[in-house]
Amino acid sequence: MPGVEYWYGIRDALAARDIQVITATVPPSGSIEARAQKLSEDIERKAGGREVNIIAGLDSRYMISQLKPPNVIVKSLTTISTPHRGSVFADYMFKSIGMTNIPKLYRALEFFGFETGAFEQLTQEYMTNSFNPRTPDLEGVKYYSYGALLRPTLTSVFRKSHQIVDSIEGPNDGLVSVASSKWGTYRGTLDNVSHLDLINWTNRLRWYFWELTGHKRNFNAIAFYLGISDMLAKEGL
Question: How far apart are CA 112 and CA 213, in angstroms?
């Protein structure tokens, strides 16, 4: 599982069920490949030759496919609202804002907890023509995925981005479409959940600002991740 801040409360809930959880810290700024390398090192050091089920995103797909950390047996990868085929919104931002203003965009995204290092790699062209062809699924690893759709309020900060993605790709969580989220065995679509709901924020100031814009916490992230652990257990993983 990625950085600890994103998984506040989830690790304890899993531990209460006697599930051993490994959290890996990856650099917020860096390419998919650089982040995957750090993830690989952390998992190799902490897993100690044991079997692991990973809940993460593109960094883990690359790690499993290309880096294959020694002494680690990856049984499954579950991704959640991950832009496997890129994001229309990423395309839009690069075209409309321009490269000179991208640093300002990054600062805004980082305020909300987004990791921006790989943002340039999330265009549809890059994912379709570069990343996916050279990152095939690894035989023996089971791949699961979830998507999410949002119905933004008039004051939601996701209203514009949702419209952009919806006009081209259809239902989305404000940044990533359901279509782009599908990889491997698709386990379903989370209803009226934003991209930020999925990471279980810990920063109360951020949540205060977020709620001022009309967004409410109607998603129980801890229950969702416990559900994933149940699913993996039923699959014999």
Answer: 13
